[in-house]
Amino acid sequence: MFDIGFWEVLIISVLALLVIGPERLPDVARKAGRMIGKVRRFVNSVRSDLERELRTDELEKMLNQQNEQIQELKNILNDTASTVESELKETEQLVHALPDEAEAETTDTKKLTSDEPKPGN
């Protein structure tokens, strides 16, 4: 957090010894240590909460993106299925129409062959 070197700590200790006095200095140091510990724990708690919240937001964004992609794939799949169904119906219609045309061609061929003179007559 703070960039405090050896000399700064030494100066603060000497000033604290002069201002507070040698009798009360251990109690004040103990209280200051406890306060610093509480502040550090609070800062770490806030930091971990923020990181957890950011991870949650990132996961929600990823989930939304994946849901959008899934929806796009569903739309593509539905379009493909409808296209295949329509192609299948067209093919079925063509298959059903072919025997009628083949029958008509066979009938036309029989008529043509019956009109031709038979050899040997």
Considering the chains and any ligands shown, give keywords for the structure.
single chain, 121 residues, mainly alpha
Radius of gyration from the alpha-carbon trace, in angstroms: 46 Å
Along the chain, the helix and strand elements come as HH
Quaternary organization = single chain
Share of residues in helices: over 70%
> How many distinct domains?
1
**Number of distinct beta strands:** 0
Largest sheet: none
Number of helices: 2
Shape: rod-shaped
Determine the mean pLDDT. 85
Structural class: mainly alpha
Poorly predicted tracts of residues: none
What portion of residues belong to β-strands?
under 5%
Span between termini: 121 Å
What's the SSE blueprint?
Blueprint: H1 6-20, H2 25-115
Summarize the structure.
The chain is mainly α and 121 residues long. The chain has helices at 6-20, 25-115. The chain has one domain.
Please provide a written account of the structure.
The mean pLDDT is 85. This protein is mainly α. The chain has two helices and no strands. The chain has helices spanning 6-20, 25-115. It has one domain (7-93).
